[in-house]
Amino acid sequence: MQFQPKSTLAALALATAMLTLPSYADGISISGEASYRERIALPPTAELQVQLVDVSLADAPSKVIASTLVSPAGQVPIPFTLDFDASAISDRATYALQARIENDGELLLITDTRHTIDPLAAAIPEQLALVSVAATPPAAEPAVPEADAALFGDWTLVELDGKPTAEGVDSSLTISKDLSIGGGGGCNRFGGNLSLADKFDISNVFSTMMACEEPAMAQEQAFFAALEAATGYQIVDGDLNLEADGKVVARLTPAS
């Protein structure tokens, strides 16, 4: 009988163990279903998009880790499988799933609550609940003070953090008297709600999800981040200054 040296046996044992362990460098997938409670049928051309996003930074746009498109979506419950690279996952970050259903570029339904997930430990199918965009009107607000009336109207972005906007990239903001907002980021259309009860606060922001070339995408992301970060405003010489921590994060002029 021949005996292998201990070092050789140890190496063989280590190699065998490595073969039996899962490799997190390989692709991993998250599966689940998307559904909604409204009694409506989706158009035959509707599409479901599900994204795995890094939501660690509260004052910055979510970073998309992976995305999948189910087209056509069919009817609920809509099954999905989202593949992603495990090496992109950090144990110091917080992750969530978000979903939306669109038809010919029109947003129909969206997840309106955070669906937090540990991507590397997702063992059971995830259940995503979407709500109709038309079914979520802005919450009732107290009467708007007369001093805030100057807010209402159409505005054009001219500066972000004191720097002029990119040439040829138009970003806009419309503030309505019902305290809903909308506009164009520079690439995508967006909407949301505005509260003036305790402070200037933009929330429930949603947008279409087209991809555009730079510098449009960079300006749009910075604009959305400024809108969500703003906690106050001033009207100075007819311009709208959005402020965060006493600093002007965006300056807009009345749309012509």
If you had to describe this structure to a student in words, what would you say it looks like?
By secondary structure, this protein is mainly β. The protein folds into two domains: 28-132, Immunoglobulin-like; 146-254, Lipocalin (Beta Barrel), CATH 2.40.128. It is 11% helix and 43% strand. It contains two helices and 17 strands. The chain has helices spanning 6-20, 216-229, and strands spanning 27-36, 47-54, 63-70, 78-85, 95-103, 106-110, 115-117, 126-132, 153-160, 163-164, 172-175, 180-184, 189-195, 201-207, 232-236, 239-244, 247-254. The strands form two sheets. Strands 9, 10, 11, 12, 13, 14, 15, 16 and 17 form a nine-stranded antiparallel β-sheet that branches. The N and C termini lie far apart (93 Å). InterPro entries: DUF306_Meta_HslJ, HslJ-like_sf, Lipoprotein_YbaY-like, Pilotin. Keywords: Lipoprotein, Signal. Residues 151-251 form the DUF306 domain.
